[in-house]
Amino acid sequence: MNPRHGKLVALASALTIGIAATATAGGGGVTGLAPGGRTLAGPATARIEMQATETIYTHPATNTNACVTVAGVLGAAVRMALVGSNTSTFDVPVGGSGSLRKDSLVRMDLTCLGTATCMAQWRRELATREGGPMVKCNVLAATACLLLSSSALAGCAPAGLAAGGRTLAGPGVTAVAANTPATVYGDPSGNSNTCVTVVNAGTAAVRLSLTDGGTPSTIDVPVGDSRALCKDSTQQVDLTCLAAMCRANWRVDRY
Fold this sequence. Notes:
The strands form three sheets. The chain has an eight-stranded mixed beta sheet, with no helix packed on it. Strands 1-8-3-6 form a four-stranded antiparallel beta sheet, covered by helices on one side. A four-stranded antiparallel beta sheet has the order 10-15-12-13, with no helix packed on it. Helices cover 14% and strands 46% of the residues. The protein has two domains: 7-154, Jelly Rolls (Sandwich); 167-254, Jelly Rolls (Sandwich), CATH 2.60.120.10. It is globular. By secondary structure, it is mostly beta strands.
């Protein structure tokens, strides 16, 4: 083994052990994954009822290759399914994490495999460098993040969103009146291909809508949950509260 590589491995191992010890001593929960320079959607937390499947991320007219990382937080194991020309799956245990790569990703689903409600964190990144080689999924970083403590997740509260290397607008927090669309991003020229992440921190479901001048693409975000939607040539991003007053965290990233 290259001596330098050996030192890096030892350092990573020591860091992971130290983080684990700190988390155990603090008695905290599990943290969120951190955004990186190639993050397109998330990181955020999703809640999945027992034996149910939820679509977390959608990109109908896909032209991006993806690497998705999922960390199991509470409840039971979660199955990550990445749908493109075919479907690839990866099971993630509670307290564990895993990453899966997929070319031309159209949709990402999470399924709760147990008899209790599951909670999992997710992050979607570009898997191909612009004009360069493929980027490998970073499982070590996901595992290290998973070992940190987090009082927000321990209390099952939705976390806010942090800016990443591809963030175009936000992150922001918006209060939305019932059945009244609130525009959080506009680009009349439609020069940007965007992915929008929404975390619902209110008391009613929120509908995320992306428009390119034609038929809008939409996805509904349940209370205390998160979703992401991508669209080429985005001109407008709207949030609509489907019942009482809503509150949502949002972020727009470019691809």
